[in-house]
Amino acid sequence: MRIAVIGTGYVGLSTGVCLAEIGHHVICIDTSEEKITLLRGGKSPIYEPGMEELLTKNMEAKRLQFTTSHREGLEKSEVIIVAVGTPQQDSGEADLTYLFQAIQDAAPYIEKGSIIVIKSTVPVGTNEKVKRLLEAFGQNKVSPFVVSNPEFLRQGSAVLDTLNPDRIVIGCENKEPAAVIEKMYAPLNAKVVKTDARSAEMIKYASNAFLATKISFINNIGNLCEAVGANVEDVSKGMGLDQRIGAAFLQSGIGYGGSCFPKDVSALLAAAKEYHVPFSMIEETMMINNRQKLLLVKKALNRFGDLKHKKIAVLGFAFKPETDDMREAPSITIIHSLLNEGASVIGYDPVATRNAKGIFGEKIAYATSVGEAIKESDAVFIVTEWKEIKQLVLSEVISQMKQPIVFDGRNSFSEEAVRDCEEIEYYPIGKPAIIIRKS
Ligand SMILES: NC(=O)C1=CN([C@@H]2O[C@H](COP(=O)(O)OP(=O)(O)OC[C@H]3O[C@@H](n4cnc5c(N)ncnc54)[C@H](O)[C@@H]3O)[C@@H](O)[C@H]2O)C=CC1
Ligand SMILES: O=C(O)[C@H]1O[C@H](OP(=O)(O)OP(=O)(O)OC[C@H]2O[C@@H](n3ccc(=O)[nH]c3=O)[C@H](O)[C@@H]2O)[C@H](O)[C@@H](O)[C@@H]1O
């Protein structure tokens, strides 16, 4: 099949590369000259495990191309997948400017019979608006087929998730285009849910909001565990073995971040308000998450009294491991709060430092290794559970610090690893602190 993908961000690029991998001929279009130049050279503009290998492999096989020209990209494409950003507006609603612009850019070149697939996460009713826009701007003035096909990949495992989806959702009132899209994905052997466009759009928001709520729930249970002297990890394990609950997304930490949960939860709330459907549970999910992001700072303030002139080493900038993305990362809230409290911050992340520099500039120092970050620090904050960080030998870390104090926002170390230290103050999430004094 000949496929065009508009937008080569996390979703568009993963989709384009993986559709080429399963045998389609794909051309990816992006307005960013910089991204397209990099991609043409076989370099991925984003850090995603496995991305560059598949990128170069499929470019060499002549199944994958990149362009900044909508005209060149859309010529002879049977399926046009739109995967541009839909960020959050100040009002909480999704901002559809990029989506509508992409549709207007594409409209003059869309050929009769082509199918437009909306992969971006969009509010209920958007697919219908896209159809009307295409009717107004399309060269042929033919009513095009529009199919809602939301994406469920996770950053950090985008390639793997795209090639192994739990399900594929196809939302369209018309059977023919829905069947074409089902055929496009057939090599993936995934379960397919076919429904109307509005339900498909809602599946995406409901899924993200449910997962975010699951995280906020376990985070609150974690806080309660700390208060009553229980261990949230054992509680999660005990809950997760119940198949009706499931073990996934029960990891208590410092709140969810990323480009999607925060914005999608707030867009769902905006929709509930617009339609006057009470949904205070969603507001609670957001409030718990905002509080949770500040938990490590609160613990540090309890420990030190104040943080003035304390040197804090922050390990991890990215909102989760295996990505360089810092959109809505808890590290942003944490570092700004540490700076407000008068602390000096030195941070380390295996891949997100370039993005961090764009956010914090010269307000903090940047280390090129964990060792450099923790040297002579008063406390370490573990913010992202990178493998490199989880594999640290805690007793060695402690020996390089001014004070052996660790605030672990991701419960990265076992009790044994902590107890191996001669001297430590270890403050995890949702379970008792471990304090070992030198005898
Ligand atoms: N990032 C993620 O993990 C997931 C994102 N989503 C949704 O997918 C959509 C895209 O998200 P990301 O890939 O993260 O966005 P992104 O911001 O990484 O990438 C969007 C790309 O679209 C390009 N673009 C903007 N306007 C354009 C136009 N008129 N023509 C061509 N290209 C244009 C931008 O230059 C950019 O490269 C959003 O709606 C998001 O909510 C859904 C599932 C997962
Ligand atoms: O719409 C989207 O963009 C995507 O949003 C999430 O994917 P993503 O944000 O990439 O990453 P997740 O693994 O879901 O993690 C999100 C945040 O939740 C946090 N989290 C996750 C799981 C958990 O148990 N506890 C927890 O705090 C992570 O640290 C991270 O900050 C969803 O998992 C994807 O299905 C969805 O496609």
Automatic annotation (TrEMBL):
Q: Which organism is it from?
A: Robertmurraya beringensis
Q: Which Pfam families match?
A: UDPG_MGDP_dh, UDPG_MGDP_dh_C, UDPG_MGDP_dh_N
Keywords carried by this UniProt record: NAD, Oxidoreductase
Asked if the Swiss-Prot or TrEMBL record annotates the protein with the keyword NAD, the reply is yes
Query: Which pathway does the UniProt entry assign to this protein?
Result: Nucleotide-sugar biosynthesis; UDP-alpha-D-glucuronate biosynthesis; UDP-alpha-D-glucuronate from UDP-alpha-D-glucose: step 1/1
Quote the Gene3D superfamilies the UniProt record gives: Cytochrome c1, transmembrane anchor, C-terminal, NAD(P)-binding Rossmann-like Domain
Q: Which InterPro entries match?
A: 6-PGluconate_DH-like_C_sf, NAD(P)-bd_dom_sf, UDP-Glc/GDP-Man, UDP-Glc/GDP-Man_DH_C, UDP-Glc/GDP-Man_DH_C_sf, UDP-Glc/GDP-Man_DH_dimer, UDP-Glc/GDP-Man_DH_N, UDPglc_DH_bac
Q: Which GO terms describe its molecular function?
A: oxidoreductase activity
Which residues, by range, are in coiled-coil regions? Answer: none
- According to the entry, every stretch annotated as the UDP-glucose/GDP-mannose dehydrogenase C-terminal domain falls at 313-415
Query: Which catalysed reactions does the entry list for this protein?
Result: UDP-alpha-D-glucose + 2 NAD(+) + H2O = UDP-alpha-D-glucuronate + 2 NADH + 3 H(+)
Q: Where are the transmembrane segments?
A: none
Q: What SUPFAM superfamilies does this protein's entry cite?
A: 6-phosphogluconate dehydrogenase C-terminal domain-like (SSF48179), NAD(P)-binding Rossmann-fold domains (SSF51735), UDP-glucose/GDP-mannose dehydrogenase C-terminal domain (SSF52413)
Family of the protein in this entry: Belongs to the UDP-glucose/GDP-mannose dehydrogenase family.
* EC numbers: 1.1.1.22
- The answer to whether the entry has keyword RNA-binding is no
Protein name from the UniProt record: UDP-glucose 6-dehydrogenase
